[in-house]
Amino acid sequence: MKRRNVLRVLSAAAVGGTLVPLISPTRSSAATYGPRAADLTAHWDFPEGAGVTTREKVTQSTNPINYVFNDAVHKPDSAPLWSPKQEADGVLSGALLFDGYSTWIARGAAETTLPTDGLTVEGWVAPRAFEWGDEGKPSVIINQQDKGARRGFCLGVGRHGVWKFEIGTGDAWYEVAAPQSAALTAGKWAHVAAVFSPADGQIRLYLNGESVAQATVPTSARLSKADVPLLIGRHNQPVVINGTFAVNMFNGLIDELKLHGGALSGAEVAAGHQADLNTFTGGTIPDAAMEMDRSRYEGDRYRPAFHFTAPNHWMNEPHAPFQVGGEYHLFYQHNQHGPYWHNICWGHAVSKDLVHWRDLPVALVPTADSVAPDGVWSGASTLDANGVPALLFTAGNDSIRSNQAVGLARPADPDDSDFAKWKMHPTLVISQKADLDVGADRKVRFGDFRDPFVWQEGGTWFQLVGSGVQTSSGTDIGGTALLYTSTNLTDWTYAGPLMVGDVAAHPKTGQVWELPTFLPIGKDAQGRERRALLINPAFPAGPGEYSSKYVFYWVGVWDGSSRKWTPDSTEPRLLDYGDHFTGPSGLVDDKGRSLVFTIAQDRRSEQGHYDSGWAHNAGLPIVLSQREDGDLAFEPVAEVAGLHDGAALVNIDGPTSVSDANAALGSVKGDLLHIKLTMEAGSAAKFGLDVLRSPGDEERTRLFYDAAATELGVDRTRSGNVSSAVPDLGIQKGPLALVGGKLTLDVFVDRSIIEAYANAHRSITTRAYPSRADSLGIQLFGEGSTVTSLTVWKMGGMAV
User: Fold this and answer.
1) Closest to 718 in 3D by CA, of 747, 694, 698
2) Which sign does the torsion angle of CA 370, 385, 497, 627 carry?
3) Distance CA 122, CA 27 (A)
4) Which helix H or strand E contains 272, and what residues bound it?
5) What is the DSSP track for 426-486?
6) Which of 211, 501, 567, 756 is within CB 3.0–4.6 Å of 478 for a Cys-Cys bond?
7) DSSP per residue over 705-744, as a string?
């Protein structure tokens, strides 16, 4: 952008004009206020409250509403989202809800007549969230622009709610932006108006009827119309992410959107705003009803029902769990704008039983003038000295190096049992230092510093932060978990690396460790505390083939007094063999259980994410413990039984042949199932279970045990790969010893996700996207083996 063609905000002042007399509170009254009503060139008042089209009031033309589920791919069609119609909401009754990535309105380039010597754009908007503002472009409320040609206009909202108006005159491009003090507030209605008035030599902005900004333009300036469609909710020239997602799109409610063929005065803008206020009961601006609604995905054959999912759009790892008052709180990485990684904030949910979850408002978002203006990434939680929860989070700030640090947040109201609102501490509690001591002739991987994990022992809090270690010359040695201690949660002392990996010997463990999770699993014979260290490998130096596939662990002895961790072996062990189990976090609950939460990567294509409107889900919570041999044992929480929907469909509790067991399974069909199975190997070379199986075996996902190789695996060569990111899903496997010649599987089928826990020692988390509607059967295989027990239940959903 050339500076000579841009005018910024020059001043901000309150309007001092006199209001015109009030008018009667009816929905139509606001459309006819004042002497300038005849100058309206377009008016979208969204009176429909439902449907896939909206009427433009001046020309009475019908405009289609673009929306991903108008012609849905993986579910039945459904209409765009609207706020409910309520008489008390006056002119804002039944507004259109823009979902942030797929909702917009298009009107042909020639359908709207725009004047050249003055223009006013106004409307009511309630942003649900704010975008990053890629390339400095706003999330568009309305535009018809070609900025490269310096033609057209744009009204939109940028980072942290700062909104602006842009005008092109063919030879110049003029902008005026509201100051941060007049920024929009997420979740709140606001009336915005932008006036292009070359006769006065000004562009002016008004918020709720009051002047908030202005910039000068030449009195000779004239609007030069762009020969492109007029778009509401979508940028004419958006940034495209991952080749699929157009950003710079509005997320939230829009209503009473108007284009005036002339420049309204400040008094006229204020009068129009007051006229709208008169339509609201009590003259009070109504609440903006736009909670994310899970029902928009009803009928999606791949969206899990009983694994935790974000209510809408994107999630990656759940994290920072805590338990207070008998309730479990869980946070997760979330993009409110669409099913892609960007604009990350903390989603929040609560549960009494770990399996039924209630959505709460977003907890932490990137905020101007905070420690995290550019991202609120993964973190942890603990309870302070008064038993009040505190969140430690990765604070993103691209204006500093490293752009990753640790921030602290506390509940805005500690007496609110939902802890629905949080307040960030004004300063960072830990910043990465380039000269951290990580060993002789070594240096920390500066710039990689994220995902704190926190626990308390006595009066001391311990914190691990994921990073990496290099040689002094810059060669990667491996990931690390950096250890810090504190007595007050705000002042932290560095204690050195807890452990350093060896990426040369174990390439899949990464140059950086993310999400270090360090939980007790029992005592050893000497009464010393044993812990498991779980890490998520990261590969900033490549190769990408290993990314987001694995969780490795070590077990050993921890001595908090000496800050010393002694792993049994430096050899990393893989927890799950399915290539989808990542992102660990955890806590110790009031039953003394070490619980772990994970993200189950869906590995769908970007187009698959776009078409479905959501991405990823959590794995079931698991409990860690210690096996007799000292290794890690884990299994799903017992509370999963609370998801059973009715009595068991099949129950075999004695030795049974595979063929007889299959006869009992013949009538069982479904993609929401819990299967408990124990099989004795006998003479079978391979044996196991097929799920999501079509009647002719054209499609199925096979969980198998290879007796000769002593391996547990999953064969997805016939699973179906609709919307998968890769065409060949392949076979994944790893070592597992039978117990007394037997394999016990605890299997959960939840539409596209399959989890299998084997002998409480290893697991397989995998995905399947069948193309056939009849791929719903289950069947055993492995003649020569014996079924010693088998129980199958139908499962219900996770929502409270």
Assistant:
1) 698
2) negative
3) 17
4) helix 266-277
5) SS-SEE--TT---STTEEE-TT--EEEEEEEETTEEEEEEEEEEEETTS-EEEEEEEEEEE
6) 501
7) EETTTTEEEEEEEES-BTTBSSS---EEEEE---BTTEEE
Q: Please give the DSSP secondary-structure letter assigned to residue 186.
A: T
DSSP three-state, residue 767: strand
Residue type, position 389, single letter: P
State yes or no: pLDDT of 355 exceeds 70: yes
Tally of helices (H runs) and strands (E runs) in the chain? 3, 55
Distance in angstroms (rounded) separating the CA atoms of residues 499 and 478: 10
Tell how strand 422-424 and strand 442-444 pair up: unpaired
Structure-token match 């072996």, residue found: 569
Q: Maximum CA pair distance of the chain?
A: 93
Could you tell me which of 686, 696, 733, 736 has the C-alpha nearest to residue 718? 696
Instruction: Provide mean pLDDT across the span 357-368.
Output: 97
First to last CA, the chain: 51
Radius of gyration of the CA atoms of the chain, in A: 29
Beta strands 614-615 and 313-324 are parallel
User: Are 536 and 514 in contact, with CB atoms under 8 Å apart?
Assistant: yes
CA distance 520 to 226: 64
Residue 159 DSSP one-character state? G
- What pTM was computed for the model? 0.94
**What is the rounded distance in angstroms from the CA atom of residue 557 to the CA atom of residue 562?**
12
- Which three-class secondary structure state does DSSP give residue 294? helix
Q: How confident is the model at residue 800 (pLDDT cuts 50, 70, 90)?
A: confident
pLDDT of residue 31: 38
pLDDT tens-place string over residues 699-734: 999 999 999 999 999 999 999 999 999 999 999 999
Copy the structure tokens of residue 452. Answer: 């704190």
Rounded percentage of the chain residues whose pLDDT exceeds 90: 94
Closest CA to 255 of 233, 275, 234: 233
Tokens of 724: 């998968």
The rounded percent of the chain whose pLDDT value lies above 70 is 95
Tens-digit pLDDT profile for residues 412-445:
999 999 999 999 999 999 999 999 999 999 999 9
Mean pLDDT of the chain: 94
pLDDT in tens, 389-408: 999 999 999 999 999 999 99
Which of these, 566, 492, 581, lies nearest to 535 by C-alpha position? 581
3-state secondary structure of 197: strand
